[in-house]
Specification:
Rossmann fold, globular, 10 strands, alpha/beta, 330 residues, 7-stranded mixed β-sheet
Length: 330
């Protein structure tokens, strides 16, 4: 059967340029070092509490190591681990202000910065601005949790007014050295009704207070503005193939995963309207990188074209490993 290519969205991404050849090995080593630092936070199943709604009953979805388990809430269907709840500042200090975390980031940044900027920058500009019919020279965009500033750097090159917030001091300083408008400050300090678009790429899954965060973001948006969130999909094909080996399962860092039901609850409680919900991901690439580590064969190089097609089908079916949620401030 002939399938017209315009029915699917293709991402022409080179796995080793994006991830590096030792990506999966690096993930395993990072987790191995992370576990002894945070194992004390693992709680008994009876102490489970949903991050989104606070409900205390859920069904076991996934197990990692040392009794680290993920439960799907019986009430809102969000998925959270059985780890002790902490205030956001304490969580940030415990996980993100360590040499282990910064060493990992610096390796990734230096190895793939230019490739990520050009690959993700263009795609995110198209999705977060052009898709919504917004004029590049007439918007003000805020990137919350901007990381190393790949997207902001691309926006700046294309004349878009933009600003970034990054809680990790080292990353904020890195962005500043590159001449980007980035501060290690709080979203609460931003002016109200200032932005046309606020983006949060891979932020929501780290947050213990998602409703509070989204309410705050809403107050910073102009009327009719958009909040765009990228966050992992724990119900994806990638998780079915890889289970707890899936790289977007970051123990002690990713504390809440969502689905359509929990997204709707989050939007309702924070005062947003769901504009679109889609999935795009790298399920096949990540699975093949795992197999490269296990088998010593460069699957991603040999199967590049197949990888693109299969992933495009998964994306269209809504089962790939990253959600893209667009909320509108109405």
């Amino acid at each position: 059967m002939f399938i017209p290519s315009n029915a699917y969205k293709f991402f022409d991404v080179k796995a080793h340029s994006l991830r590096g050849k030792k990506f999966f090995e690096g993930i395993l080593n990072y987790r191995k070092k992370l576990l002894p630092l945070h194992e004390y936070r693992i709680q008994k199943p009876k102490d489970f509490k949903c991050v989104l709604c606070g409900h205390t009953h859920g069904q076991l979805l996934l197990e990692w190591e040392a009794d680290y388990k993920m439960y799907q809430c019986d009430n809102c269907s969000a998925v959270s681990p059985n780890i002790s709840p902490e205030k956001e500042k304490e969580h940030i200090d415990n996980v993100y202000a360590t040499n282990l975390y910064m060493d990992k980031l610096e390796r990734e940044i230096h190895a793939q910065y230019d490739y990520r900027k050009e690959t993700f920058g263009k795609e995110r500009l198209d999705y977060c601005v052009k898709r919504l019919g917004l004029a590049l020279d007439q918007i003000n965009l805020l990137d919350v949790g901007c990381g190393a500033g790949y997207f902001l750097s691309y926006l700046t090159d294309h004349g878009v007014k933009c600003r970034g917030l990054e809680v990790t001091q080292g990353l904020a300083q890195y962005c500043q050295k590159r001449g980007l408008n980035v501060e290690a400050s709080d979203l609460a300090d931003e002016p109200d009704k200032e932005y046309d678009v606020i983006v949060m790429f891979d932020v929501l899954e780290h947050v213990y207070n998602p409703v509070e965060l989204l309410k705050l973001a809403k107050s910073k948006l102009k009327d009719g503005g958009y909040l765009i969130l990228y966050t992992p999909n724990i119900h994806s094909i990638g998780f079915e193939l890889m289970g707890a080996q899936q790289n977007v399962l970051l123990p002690f860092e990713h504390v809440c995963f969502y689905d359509e039901k929990s997204f709707n609850r989050l939007a309702d409680e924070s005062g947003f309207k769901v504009h679109t919900l889609e999935t795009y991901g790298f399920d096949i690439m990540d699975y093949l990188l795992m197999k490269e580590y296990e088998d010593g064969y460069e699957y991603t190089e040999k199967l590049h074209e197949m990888m693109r097609w299969v992933q495009a089908v998964l994306d269209k079916q809504g089962v790939s490993n990253h959600f893209r949620l667009t909320l509108k401030n109405e």
